Amino acid sequence: MTETTCIQTETRGRVATITLHRPEALNALNSVLVRELIDAALAFDADPGIGAIVITGSAKAFAAGADIKEMAELGYSDMYLGGPFPGWAGFERMRTPVIAAVAGFALGGGCELAMMCDIILAADTAKFGQPEINLGILPGFGGSQRLPRAIGKYKAAEMVLTGRMMGAEEAERSGLVSRVVPADSLLDEAHAVAETIASKSLPAVYAAKEALQVAQESPLSEGLRFERQAFAAAFATEDQKEGMRAFAEKRDPEFTHR
Ligand code: CO8
Questions:
Q1: Last residue of a domain, one of 199, 214, 239
Q2: pLDDT tens for residues 194-235?
Q3: Residue pLDDT, tens place only, 161-207
Q4: CATH of the domain at 218
Q5: Which of 114, 103, 122, 124 is nearest to 146 (CA)?
Q6: DSSP per-residue codes, 135-195
Q7: Residue to probe by mutation, ligand 1, list 20, 35, 68, 71, most atoms within 8 Å of CB
Q8: Of 20, 22, 26, 127, which is best to mutate to test ligand 1, by the most ligand atoms within 8 angstroms of its C-beta?
Q9: In terms of pLDDT, which residue wins out, 199 or 81?
């Protein structure tokens, strides 16, 4: 793996972990960190030996947003043409499930990064927010679109328009996070979820993730059409035969990801 300065990566079996590591800036997303994060994530996504990716930060911060100091003097064209943060489209198109393991602050771009993931596990110390309004801007990594889809228009409007943060318990109640766990077991829990996903049939997992994404982006009729095709296609895989035979034979399936 290439040398990195703002992230650390690790693979254990079929699970890859990316740890954001800019402790001096609460993991603020500067151009170097974003480049390294996207490069690492896309490399893991292209590796069929990896079945799930965990993205995490430190105990104090998942990420406190885009790097304000780096952005401060940029202009319209800088931002519109991609600014310091190009490449997210590739991240959003990844097929491998991504689990955000969030402790501490997940603010602005940090909250938006978590929302780009498929599953958000929150430590009881997690704090989510879109405080961009305090800086004279608005969310720019999808927060104004994904937050209302996750927690509803009125709660999202309060957060985006006032900059108020919400704690882990409120985030779980609101549907922003999959589950809250004690801070000291966050990574173990995230790895357990990742290992469970990575033990399944890769083609089935890819298709299920894609169907869930279609559900976020399309009307029900279109989503149902997609699901019908994807479901039928699953019956062309060897893993479908193996999974169903293993059930009938009362044994664990041995998926070959074919
Ligand atoms: N950017 C740069 N540096 C940061 C950031 C940040 N987002 N957050 C924290 N830091 C730095 C601080 O400046 C400080 O550095 P130093 O020690 O050199 O002064 C260090 O991290 C520690 O921070 P604090 O001393 O402030 O720590 P506290 O515990 O007192 O406060 C907070 C923690 C509440 C999280 C506070 O740091 C804070 O409010 N941070 C900013 C949060 C924020 O506004 N985030 C949104 C940023 S804008 C954004 O994300 C837009 C994304 C859209 C991009 C679209 C591109 C296309």
A1: 199
A2: 999 999 999 999 999 999 999 999 999 999 999 999 999 999
A3: 999 999 999 999 999 999 999 999 999 999 999 999 999 999 999 99
A4: 1.10.12.10
A5: 114
A6: GT----SSHHHHHHHHH-HHHHHHHHHH---EEHHHHHHHTSSSEEE-GGGHHHHHHHHHH
A7: 68
A8: 26
A9: 199
Same domain, 188 and 215: no
Q: Does any domain span residue 124?
A: yes
According to the model, what pLDDT value does residue 196 have? 98
Q: How far is the CA of 187 from the centre of ligand 1 (A)?
A: 24
The closest of 134, 147, 48, 59 to 95, measured between CA atoms, is 48
Ligand 1 binding site (Cβ under 6 Å of any ligand atom) = 25-26, 28, 64-69, 79, 83, 85, 105, 107-109, 131-132, 135, 140-141
Backbone angles phi, psi at 247, to 5 degrees: -60, -50
What residue numbers bound the domain in which 239 lies?
Answer: 202-249
ipTM here: 0.97
pTM for the model: 0.96
Cα(26) to ligand 1 centroid in Å equals: 7
Of the residues 61, 66, 100, 168, only one is catalytic, namely 66
Instruction: Answer whether residue 180 is part of any domain.
Output: yes
106 and 128 both lie in a single domain: yes
Task: Name the catalytic one among 132, 156, 190, 198.
Answer: 132
**Look-up: residue for tokens 């105990």?**
59
106: left (phi over 0), alpha (psi -120 to 50) or beta: beta
Q: Ligand 1 mean position to 18 CA, how many Å?
A: 21
- Same domain for 69 and 168: yes
Nearest CA to ligand 1 atom 53: 140
How many domains would you assign to the chain? 2
- Is-catalytic flag, 61? no
